[in-house]
Amino acid sequence: MTDQWVALEPGADPDERVRALRRAHETFTTVGTVPRPVRPVVAESWRRSARAGVGPDGTASVELTDDDLGAYRAEHPLAQVMPLVRELVGTFAAEGSHLLAVCDAHGRLMWVEGHPTTLRQADRMNFVPGARWSEAAVGTNAPGTAVAVDRPVQVFAAEHFIRRVQPWTCAAAPIHDPHTGRVLGAVDITGGDGLAHPHSLGFVQAVARAAESQLSLVTPPRQAEDTVTLSVLGRDEAELRPGGGRRVRLSRRHSEVLVLLARHPEGMTGDELLCALYADESVTPVTLRAELARLRPLLPPGLLASRPYRLSVPVECDAALVERQLETGALTAAIRAYRGPLLPNSQAPAVVGLRRRLAGALRTALITRGDPDLLADWAHAPWGEHDLAVWRALAAVRPTAPVRARIAALEAELSVPGVPGRRPQVRQTPWVTSGATYSQRPPV
């Protein structure tokens, strides 16, 4: 084999290769070794699949249906290029009894289209919109492996990790955000053994590049002078980025002021701002006016207005972006945008409320959705590694030995066996994020 990314070299006998791959698959699933002729990319994928706890007799789970699926697709960036993808792939798929599929960056299928008979056959293995086809969920497969390794890849017949998928062959290529390089998902062609030809791999790669070119036209990068942004997630000192100007690092109190004013574009009176910022009722309006006087020279001219206190231009806060994404059902995008608790060491009453509501809404959505990849992302983040509720939700959908061990350790930390009524001790854990150190009280 001269190119490990191509399933069959020229002149290879497909039937003979299938037989050899089935023997190799049986060897791996029984004794854990990968014999030839398994390609390195497939061997590595099999090992990742096994480490994730995928069994060879498993099946994909459908996570999104009906309105939830429709809302998720409408919000996803790849919705903008689906007409182009259909134009390039649709006829080829329908006439060749193949399927066109597009997944997100977590391997969740968003669109599956093509020949009606092939669609009915695929339905029997849950190769349908809304189903999770990541490697961690169903093992080696072209769309899941393409987003896992960030490369175009073919998966031929018994190279699939799950046995019920082994009659199929597929080729997929990742699609990237043209401005950031982030993987947005993958385009896939699924069908018979004929797709093992090198041309199918080149074809899906060309479609992915065309989609990226289209995205660069329909989603031009935002110009710095068009907006003022405020970053407050995962950091105690907010960063303000005025349109076209230098970045401004703010003190904690000034950060709190801008968070609240960005939250209230209609403005806040001095009394409202005083109550929102200070739990101590003895703090006087003079103290607040002094803080605002020190803040005003740090901001672009005219940004902080008075009577009532307000921001003179819209300010895009990263916390507000996460809230909007969550409200539209775009949980994956919300989790990706969440960089940590909002001003985590702030004790300003209104900021504490915002921080708790945002984190609580995300946690509730995560646990309700039960997405193993998103739950794992949260659980392994600094703010989630002591979150017992999320770890338990992760164990319900991905009951691996490391997850169960982590739950046991957390339960041991949070309780003292044999001492009735003993309250769990909550540990303060320092984290360093974006240049700011903070302590996060782990939710239980």
Automatic annotation (TrEMBL):
Region (Disordered): 421-444
Keywords from the UniProt entry: DNA-binding
Organism (species): Streptomyces bauhiniae
Protein name (record): GAF domain-containing protein
Keyword Disulfide bond: no
GO biological process, one term: regulation of DNA-templated transcription
Residues annotated as signal peptide: none
InterPro entries named in the record: GAF (IPR003018), GAF-like_dom_sf (IPR029016), OmpR/PhoB-type_DNA-bd (IPR001867)
Compositionally skewed regions (Polar residues) per UniProt: 426-444
A molecular-function term among this protein's GO annotations: DNA binding
Pfam families in UniProt: GAF (PF01590)
